[in-house]
Write a structure and sequence with these properties.
Length: 541
């Protein structure tokens, strides 16, 4: 007998009984042709039996069951990379729901408490999950920052091999609930395409408050961004308090207590803060207190922001600062700058800066030039950073070709421009086996006031045209170099610092940063149109 599942409308008991009866009759009569008599039962005498055929007990009434269509992937930014659909009601927060931690995963308490507060449900700690709960658990295999999110049986379980992965799973759950009110049934398997994904902020030219920075960190975390570059020293200002050289600090600055507060928040959000002290250029704020170390050309004219790298005192000063702030920032990187050194922007550096040329030959041999002295400066500063246990980053225009000194291979190249004198295309760095981070100034540079032909980047252009392979201009490098491109950061530079307020900057970068996050998490061409993506961003964030 066939089974029939009948959906019963509310108040439809009589209708159900009728339907069950009709279904039973139809099923029982299906064995004989319509209108044909049933065959007679044989009798011992060979005659036809006149007694009625025994009747079977009526089948039990089928229990009505609710059916669900196959689920669709949760709608989040960045989009999840894989979703296995299933049939079921999904999950939504209810008054009796809670966040719990699996046994042995007590290190996820911060993530659990944060999610409980965001979803407005209880945090119950390391106890067994019950119906309606969300359980967080460490374990399983997978790439760093990966996670699996399973929704079934009126519950959610988020697992990952590390705390960051589980945290990103909670961001997916939060966004799905924000956007649609629930988490769809099924299993999400997710991981980032690139290990470095972030925002770069120039607080040297324009001061930003600790509260503003903390708000950006929270915004970054919901987008699964994990790196915040902090450019706090330049010609216009030095913006973090110093114990070793308080004389260089600008009036508007972050105290070390504020920095530690920022770092503590960043840690809970799985964001690494990368400090930057740019040298040998962009040191104007430092050099105001040390004018004797400022670079001067053969006519005695000082060059703004440039330190004289032929003087041993210059290296001592910068290294003292590097060590001080390496101790303050616990993350694994330190950015040492190396871009736009003014001695290398003239036709003949050796003629214009004879003291640098002499120092280069003395240190690196008769064939050495000023660029070799600058390259050696980069290597020496990177060595100081390395001694503190950190990886050095430097801007691409601090790496030169054709000299007797080459930049250390362990320094990460932060590629931002191809417009400098002696510009090298990004494929050259990659062909040398170097690791590169994408800060393409034609897509990812938000420069206040739009000087020097810069225009404010749009989220749409990033979403539709940029990928991590597009390091310079609009042309991608060959895909074989993809593994060497570690990721990218969207960058805010404050060249004309009064052009926008803090609030205007936050609003201006919102969609470009959102689009950048999508393309760093998943390099593939997105399925939604830009208009659909923008509408989703307004719902889930």
């Amino acid at each position: 007998m066939m089974r029939y599942s009948i959906r019963v409308p509310r108040g439809g008991t009589a209708l159900m009984a009728t339907a069950v009866a009709l279904a039973t009759v139809a099923a029982c009569s299906s064995g004989s042709p319509s209108g044909a008599p049933s065959p007679a039962s044989p009798s011992g005498s060979g005659g036809t039996s006149t007694s009625a055929a025994p009747t079977s007990a009526p089948p039990p009434s089928p229990t009505p069951t609710r059916t669900y269509p196959l689920s669709t992937a949760p709608r989040t930014i960045p989009a999840v990379r894989d979703h296995e659909p299933a049939r079921g009601p999904g999950w939504k927060p209810t008054p009796t729901a809670g966040i719990v931690i699996a046994a042995g995963s007590e290190g996820l308490a911060d993530e659990a408490r944060l999610l409980a507060g965001e979803l407005k449900i209880a945090y119950r700690g390391a106890v067994a999950a019950r119906a309606g709960d969300v359980e967080l658990a460490l374990g399983g295999k997978g790439a760093p920052e990966s996670y699996t999110l399973t929704t079934r049986d009126n519950g959610v379980r988020i697992t990952g091999p590390d705390q960051a992965g589980v945290f990103y799973g909670t961001r997916t759950l939060k966004q799905s609930v924000n956007g649609s009110g629930s988490m769809p049934e099924g299993t999400v398997t997710d991981a980032p395409a690139k290990p470095q994904r972030g925002l770069n902020l120039d607080i040297a030219r324009k001061f930003f408050t600790a509260e503003w920075i903390e708000a950006r960190l929270r915004e970054m975390a919901d987008l699964k961004l994990n790196q915040f570059g902090l450019h706090f020293s330049d010609d216009q200002g030095f913006r973090i308090a110093s114990d070793t050289h308080p004389e260089i600090v600008s009036a508007e600055h972050l105290t070390k207590a504020e920095v530690r507060r920022i770092l503590a928040l960043a840690e809970t959000l799985h964001i690494t803060v990368v400090p930057e002290i740019d040298s040998p250029g962009h040191l104007g704020a430092v050099l105001r207190a040390y004018p004797d170390l400022q670079l001067r050309n053969v006519q005695g004219v000082p060059r703004q922001g440039a330190i004289d790298i032929s003087k041993p005192a210059s290296a001592r000063l910068v290294d003292e600062l590097l060590r001080e702030y390496a101790a303050l920032f616990p993350g694994g990187w330190f950015h040492v700058g190396a871009d736009e050194y003014q001695a290398l922007t003239v036709r003949s550096p050796e003629t214009s800066y004879p003291q640098l040329a002499t120092a280069a030959r003395q240190k690196y041999g008769a064939q050495a030039r000023v660029q070799d002295l600058a390259e050696g400066w980069l290597n020496d500063r990177a060595a100081v950073v390395s001694d503190t246990g950190k990886v050095a980053k430097a801007w691409n225009d601090g790496f030169f070709r054709g000299g007797v000194v080459n930049a250390d291979k362990d320094i990460e190249v932060e590629y931002w421009t191809g417009k400098e004198i002696g510009a090298r295309p990004p494929a050259e760095y990659l062909a040398e086996g170097r690791k590169v981070v994408n800060l393409n100034d034609e897509f990812l540079y938000y420069v206040l006031g739009q000087p020097n032909d810069f225009t404010y980047p749009t989220g749409r252009r990033i979403y539709e045209q940029w990928t991590p392979l597009v390091l310079r201009g609009t042309t991608p490098v060959p895909a074989r170099y993809g593994p060497q491109i570690l990721g990218g950061r969207f960058a805010v530079w404050c060249d004309l610092s009064r052009s926008q307020t803090q609030a205007q900057v936050a609003d201006g970068i919102r969609l470009p940063l959102t689009a950048t996050a999508q393309k760093l998490w998943d390099e593939r061409k997105p399925t939604p149109t830009w208009e659909q993506f923008r509408a989703l961003a307004a719902k889930v964030r």
